[in-house]
Amino acid sequence: MAISLEARIVAVADMFDAHTSERPYKGVWTNDAAAAFLQEQAGRKFDPNCVAALLADISAIEAIQQQFRDIPSGLLMPGRWRRSRSPLGRGLSITRL
């Protein structure tokens, strides 16, 4: 069974976003590094048409990245949220203070 077009599109977009976004367990790749990796893996791990479509307009991707930049973890305001017991007693939930 073939992988659906939707899944192939998501795989390419998710890889690009995951590698160019801050994560606590890895460093951030530049857009150029992520694009080079996608091009290297096009036809192996990723659909080459989906890779080409994503990389066709990097300036649009950069505009979106600027609009929705990650907030560095050091700038988050501690104490604004706390964990609390669920009223139903089924584990913990997040409660806004």
How do the strands and helices of this protein lay out in sequence?
Blueprint: H1 5-20, H2 31-41, H3 48-55, H4 58-67, E1 81-85, E2 92-96
Antiparallel strand pairs: 1-2
Helix pairs in contact: 1-2, 2-3
Low-confidence region ranges: none
Structural class: mainly alpha
Number of strands: 2
CATH superfamily: Hypothetical protein af1432
User: What is the fold-level CATH name, i.e. the topology?
Assistant: Hypothetical protein af1432
How many discrete structural domains?
A: 1
Give the % helix: 40-55%
Q: Strand order across the biggest sheet?
A: 1-2
InterPro entries: Cyclic_di-GMP/3'3'-cGAMP_PDE (IPR052020), HD_GYP_dom (IPR037522)
Organism: Azospirillum argentinense
Pfam families: HD_5
Protein name: HD-GYP domain-containing protein
Q: What does this entry look like structurally?
A:
- 46% of the residues lie in helices and 10% in strands.
- The protein is mainly alpha-helical and 97 residues long.
- It has one domain (5-96): Hypothetical protein af1432, CATH 1.10.3210.
- A hairpin with a 6-residue loop joins β1 (81-85) and β2.
- The N and C termini lie far apart (49 Å).
